[in-house]
Every structure is written in structure tokens, then in C-alpha cells.
Amino acid sequence: MKRLFDIALGLLLLPISLGLMIIIAGLVRLSSKGPIIHWSDRVGKRNIIFKMPKFRTMHSESPNIASNLLKNPEDYVTSIGSFLRKSSLDEIPQIISVIKGDMSIVGPRPALFNQYDLIKLRTENGIDQLAPGVTGWAQVNGRDELTTVEKVAFDIEYLNRMSFFFDLMVLWKSLSVLITRKNISH
To answer: Residue 64 gets which letter from DSSP?
Structure first.
């Protein structure tokens, strides 16, 4: 049922968001040199690496590490990038990954390929068996403010409580977080 919900919601959101994606693509193109879409190597279900699309929010020459690990991340973010990140509009292309089956609408956020400590903890706790999500339980309970251990604790809680109705609750809370911008630091 989860996969069916993902496909249905993905197919519904894709045409609805198309106009917005065209506008964002134009803004990304005007704000800096480089591709409009950044294809990030992410860890998916069973720790299989997949290419996750996001609107590019950083300059092309930026290091390929989690932005919270950069000394001065604001030095790498494009003029439109900060807004796209704080509003989560950079995530819209992930609808394609949901339809394709690399991601789910709700699940643990996919780790970067080089976030070894997060990958290890998730694997030890069975989280690697879940499809990563566009949004997730950790996202709505702290997002950028959480440590790796705290993220995994929320991932474990999600694994234990996972259901259609729990996913609906996470989606509802995600909208609330987006509107209030709570715990969004970059």
C-alpha cells in the first residue's frame, strides 16, 4: 500500500508542480553557472547508492560533503540557494525518485554516500531496509538541529510505528514545519 500511495501522490504532484519547477529552474540558471539539477549520490534501501535529484543550491565547485560539515557553508550557497533550502523547494525534483521507486514520500532522509557514521548506525538498527523519504520523522522533529544519534533514534521510532496513518501524520507535520520554518538552519 505504501508504494501505491507513493506512486499515486507522485503522479498527482508532478503535473501540479511543473510550473513551479520551470520558474525555479530559471532562477537557478540565472543565479550561478552550472547545471540546474544536482544529482547527489545517496544511500537508498539496502544501502544501494542512487542518484537523487535536487535543484542546485550551491556553486558547482563546492565540496561534495554534507553542508553542515563545511566550515562556512554560506560561502558555497548561491544567491537563490538559501531560499530554496529553507523553503525545501530544492527537494521538488525528488518526486521523480519517488515515482521511479528509489525513494518514498515518507521515510528516513537519504544519507550522503560519505556519511559513514549515519549509514553504519542505520544499518545496525535495520533502517537500511526502508526506502528513504522526501520527508521523515526526524525531519519534523529537528531536521538540521539533530545529531546523528538523535536522527537514528527517530528513524528507529519511525520503523516501529510505520503505517499509512503515521505517514499521513508525518506529512501533516512536514507542512507545519515548512510553514513555520522550525529547525531549518540552512
So the answer is: S
C-alpha cell at 24: 525555479
Determine the Cα–Cα distance for residues 14 and 95; give it in Å rounded to an integer: 7
Assigned C-alpha cell, 67: 553542508
> What is the rounded distance in angstroms from the CA atom of residue 47 to the CA atom of residue 101?
14
Three-state DSSP at 43 gives: strand
**In this structure, are residues 162 and 124 in contact, taking their beta carbons and an 8 Å threshold?**
no
Q: Please, are residues 42 and 64 in contact by the beta-carbon 8 Å criterion?
A: no
CA distances (Å), 24 to each of 14, 55, 130, 173, 183, in order?
Answer: 14, 8, 30, 24, 23
Residue 77 has pLDDT above 90, yes or no: no
The pLDDT tens digits of the residues spanning 85-101 come to 888 899 999 999 999 99
